[in-house]
Amino acid sequence: MKTSPIIALDFESADKTFDFLRVFDGNVNVKVGMQLYYKEGPAIVARLKELGFDIFLDLKLHDIPNTVKSAMEVLAGFGVDLVNVHAAGNKTMMEAALEGLDKGTPSGMTRPSLIAVTQLTSTDERQVREEQLIGASLQESVLHYAKLTKDAGLDGVVCSVHEAAVITEVCGKSFFKVTPGIRLPDGGAHDQKRIATPEQARLEGSTHIVVGRAITGATDPRAAYEQIEALWKGTEA
Ligand SMILES: O=C(O)c1cc(=O)[nH]c(=O)n1[C@@H]1O[C@H](COP(=O)(O)O)[C@@H](O)[C@H]1O
């Protein structure tokens, strides 16, 4: 997947999605999440692929290993670039996900990269301790999941910008740190708890940033994308 920002296409329909994408060319990365996929199914992925977009299919699989393996076998046939699971599904489930992807990737095609969500960017310290009853800090929990993910042979994790540097130290630079929760300095957090700017993401060593509402909710989405891309790449005027 290219390193340019990944736009989260959190729209209610294909019509709304393609209307939004009119001002973008196939050179941007896009993310299809649960809302759009559940509404439109594999057809939306096929259409985006035809238009040349690199695609992160974000369905966050989390089930018993056999179910996840079979589901990944199906997703591997879609020709997407990146898919994900929840690390909380455990190492055996992550290994099964990888097996399913390997098995389902058509010959001559590249296996989609596989990453695991550590702690959602909508989660805070209190929720980790009190609701999940994890006897460790949020950062320790994220790092633990990152190590588990690497041991399982996956390509990287979803985490917040605030954990990217420590994950790089422990899991290496090429291990994906895909970071959502990206906001411009004057942007609202919405339901996110661990937010950061594109510039912070670059400085902390994120490998990819996922951006939804800061672009999709902007008055001029193309201008917002360009501003975010420049801050992310460090090429801003
Ligand atoms: O896996 C993800 O993409 C994801 C993981 C996570 O921890 N937090 C998170 O926000 N996301 C996704 O990233 C996008 C963030 O959207 P905005 O908050 O609008 O930028 C949404 O589509 C989320 O589903």
Automatic annotation (TrEMBL):
Residues 4-228 form the Orotidine 5'-phosphate decarboxylase domain. Substrate binds at residues 10, 31, 58-67, 121, 183, 192, 212-213. The active site is at residue 60. Pathway: Pyrimidine metabolism; UMP biosynthesis via de novo pathway; UMP from orotate: step 2/2. Keywords: Decarboxylase, Lyase, Pyrimidine biosynthesis. This is Orotidine 5'-phosphate decarboxylase. It comes from Sporosarcina soli. The lineage of its organism: Bacteria, Bacillati, Bacillota, Bacilli, Bacillales. Homodimer. Its EC number is 4.1.1.23. GO terms for molecular function: orotidine-5'-phosphate decarboxylase activity. Catalyzes the decarboxylation of orotidine 5'-monophosphate (OMP) to uridine 5'-monophosphate (UMP).
